[in-house]
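Quick one: co-fold with zinc ion.
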Amino acid sequence: MSELSELYQAVILDHNKKPRNFHVLENANHTAEGFNPLCGDQLTLYLQLEDDAVKDISFVGTGCAIWKASASMMTQALKGKTKQEAEALFDEFHRMVTGQLDEEEEPNHLGRLTIFAGVREFPVRVKCATLSWHTMHAALNEQEKVSTE
Ligand code: ZN
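Sure, here it is.
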């Protein structure tokens, strides 16, 4: 368990120092804004969809360490995925952090994203970890704004 939390800490730190895909995406054809009033996390999510697949994805915004690491890793995970695969991954991630998916027992596509499994112990943090995912889902479905409240 302490090994897992060390990995978790290291990954969170790394993504906070060097967030991936952290910029405005000029060629975006879908965008959405997300806000988590409980913590103050907010972002704009940019998606470039081509033939129903995520050609490029990026984000900008401000927030806590869990928010930033989660958004950063999400963009890495979704590049090249189809819309359907992106929605399926969102569902798995959401179920994992809310305790409805056991990432060790149930087959899933989460890969490195399983380091966020621990946030299910902290309901307040679940919103930080899922904000970017909800915002991505909104962007895919032509909604412009999402709030976790
Ligand atoms: Zn937060």
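If it helps, The mean pLDDT is 94.
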